[in-house]
Amino acid sequence: MNPIKSFASHQEKHPLEPFEIQRRNVGPKDVKIQIEYCGVCHTDLHFVNNDWKITEYPVVPGHEIVGRVTDLGSEVNKFSLGDLAAIGCMINSCGNCKSCMEGMEQYCLNGFTATYNSPTQDYGGRTFGGYSQVIVANESFVLHIPDNLEIQGAAPLLCAGITTYSPLKHWNIGPKMKVGIVGLGGLGHMGVKFAHALGAHTVMITTSPHKAEDAKSLGADDVLISSDANAMKKENGEFDFILNTIPVNHSLDKYLDLLKVDATMCIVGAIEPLDSLNAAQLLFGRKNLSGSIIGGIKETQEMLDFCGTKKIISDVEVININQINEAFKRLVKSDVKYRFVINMNSI
Amino acid sequence: MNPIKSFASHQEKHPLEPFEIQRRNVGPKDVKIQIEYCGVCHTDLHFVNNDWKITEYPVVPGHEIVGRVTDLGSEVNKFSLGDLAAIGCMINSCGNCKSCMEGMEQYCLNGFTATYNSPTQDYGGRTFGGYSQVIVANESFVLHIPDNLEIQGAAPLLCAGITTYSPLKHWNIGPKMKVGIVGLGGLGHMGVKFAHALGAHTVMITTSPHKAEDAKSLGADDVLISSDANAMKKENGEFDFILNTIPVNHSLDKYLDLLKVDATMCIVGAIEPLDSLNAAQLLFGRKNLSGSIIGGIKETQEMLDFCGTKKIISDVEVININQINEAFKRLVKSDVKYRFVINMNSI
Predict the structure, then answer these.
(1) Pseudo-torsion of CA B221, B226, B229, B231, nearest 10°?
(2) Cα-trace Rg, chain B
(3) Cα–Cα distance for residue pair A336/A340, rounded to 1 Å
(4) Is residue A117's pLDDT more than 90?
(5) How far is the alpha carbon of A336 from chain B, nearest alpha carbon, in Å?
(6) Fewest C-beta atoms under 10 Å: which of A231, B6, B133, B206?
């Protein structure tokens, strides 16, 4: 399916103009944000295309949102008017389950409310995301952006950033560890930056030899070409952790070979059925295969603060809103270094 | 392939009579064991059939070996003549790698020497297992059997026992945890006994409703019928750990559904390519899929001592050596409760 056609045609069918969808009134604990930039995540394209058969049109994608606070509820105490503010993939969760109580709203046992395409009591019956001019959300799910970060490069931290930071922290990545980042795209380039910043010996694992130089400039200590069987064999059993950012179905076996005894490969890219897995790869070496989605709100703020301290932002290409269909087309071809970000002043 | 034919015909081709294969002379650190009982593991049948394409005929299977010490090297200090002694799946390892240094000889980075079908300097050029009258091995790989255990029931502890005990200990299974054991066979019935003995709320997960009563008599607190979609759905997200003993290719997804956030399913049965795995099952809930083989020597002794304290042995059906081909046939149909053990005095 042509993503451009799909996006345009579905939007046209609905009486609401997607970029003029009203937002709910600002409640006592709500923050209203004038959106300045919004990152373009591959998930946005999956929703536009209804790849996962859960899209309700018209959908307004976008969950890498940065802007400034323009209105506040009376009970808001985390933000002031004019503050830089950000929203990621969630705008609510139950708050009462074990996961929420432990600060892991992303694993809310009752299901978190996604920033777009989630049922809600708001106008329109569901949430609408950041390809828009304003967004209103409870301050609990709104983040602070450190002042020293360029905000267009900070936008992708809200999804690509936390998605890679959270597993690296969960598995205690740090100095004296050898960490592989598989795939150099929106997620992978952030994985390299974070693994490097956390002090690990960071290896970019990619099928594309031409990405070697870029990977090193992003912070990779080494590059391992996964299509080079000899090079891969030499690295068997050498890795303490692998972050797998490949966004599509692929065979896991050759990456599992790279792990040390008891080490883990965490999938953050492919949210789908994978063709095959040889259980022997897990048994011999008691290796672990895991997965992870985004991160909790507290952890997301911690990540943003870490980025402020380490001066980490995403490498982005800023586009105007009328270039979004072209951007989707290029995204499919991985033709972006490494994240499109929409300048919302172009609406 | 008919396992009986296969076993007989391959053995016949070779000039060595398998049950009369000589053993090496007793070296200074060696123990010679007169074998009394040897368990019949599904792995034995895989080797007999050359399912894994690594069998060198004639093969003498058997790695659940118990007997009495009949000869000793001059430097042996762990054993005396007449002691009960046991050998499991390994008879050597490099001793110098990180895994060996940490007591995990089963993950020896240079490959452990298996009790049968492994290259060695011994007579015959490789190791021969426990379907035999004697075995000679370095005392470091020989275990003590607590005196209070019936030895025919203790034999399967050397493989089925340690294979299930080791992961339960590695993942710190204990009271206040809900643990699922998938599959009720040689491994599964030991998994139930150990999980129960470690204090966990133990749930037998099986396709076979008729196994419910047996599972409870083995120590299961509950039985979950995996073919009952409603029953499975009710248990989604309820398990702290699942030990998966299914010995063949199967879909993992419905079992992963049962896990809590951050919980692990460990595969100990199927050492082979599995058809499919939905990565989404791992991502949503940061679940872990792992695998484990047997256990280290120190841990195996710990397991045997634990069995002595808790009076745990396997449920076995004792056969004579001339019944082995019939036993293999029944093993394929899971027609044994729960482990065949060969009385080696029948040779």
Answers:
(1) 0
(2) 20
(3) 7
(4) yes
(5) 25
(6) A231
Q: Do the strands A239-244 and A178-182 form a parallel or antiparallel pair, or are they unpaired?
A: parallel
Q: Is the pLDDT of residue B8 over 90?
A: no
Q: Mutation target for A interface from B283, B292, B293: give the one with most A CBs within 10 A.
A: B283
Model confidence pLDDT, tens digit, residues B180-191 = 999 999 999 999
Nearest to A282 among B109, B261, B291 (CB): B291
User: Best mutation site among A102, A243, A261, A278 for testing chain B: the one with the most B CBs within 10 Å?
Assistant: A261
Share of chain B above pLDDT 70, in %: 94
Instruction: Considering only the beta carbons, identify the residue of A271, A279, A290 that sits closest to B267.
Output: A279
ipTM: 0.91
A-to-B residue pairs, Cβ atoms closer than 8 angstroms: 110
pLDDT band, very low/low/confident/very high, at A11 (cuts 50, 70, 90)? very low
Q: What's the CA gap between B161 and A266, in Å, rounded?
A: 30
Nearest to B280 among A104, A271, A284 (CB): A271
CB contacts, 8 Å: A285 with chain B: 107
DSSP collapsed to 3 states, B112-137 = CEECCCCECCCCCCECCCCCCCEEEE
Asked if A272's CB is within 8 angstroms of B280's CB, the reply is yes
pTM score of the predicted model: 0.92
Tell me the average pLDDT across B118-135: 88
Give the distance between the most distant pair of CA atoms in chain B: 63
Chain B contact set for A268 (CB, 8 A): 283
**Which one, of A88, A99, A179, A177, lies nearest residue A129 by Cα?**
A88
- Residue B191 in contact with residue B219, Cβ under 8 Å? no
Amino acid making up residue B146? P
Q: Are B218 and B299 in contact (CB under 8 A)?
A: no
Q: Closest approach of chain B CAs to the CA of A179, in angstroms?
A: 18
**Residue B342 corresponds to which tokens in the numbers above?**
């060969």
Which pLDDT score is estimated for A21? Answer: 55
Has residue A327 got a pLDDT over 50? yes
SS3 category, B140: helix
Q: Tell me which chain B residues have a C-beta less than 8 angstroms from the C-beta of A261.
A: 98-99, 104, 107, 109
pLDDT band with cut points at 50, 70 and 90 for residue A4: very low
> Which chain A residue is nearest to residue B112, measuring alpha carbons?
A284
Average pLDDT over residues A145-161: 97
C-alpha to C-alpha distance for B2 and A250, rounded to whole angstroms:
36
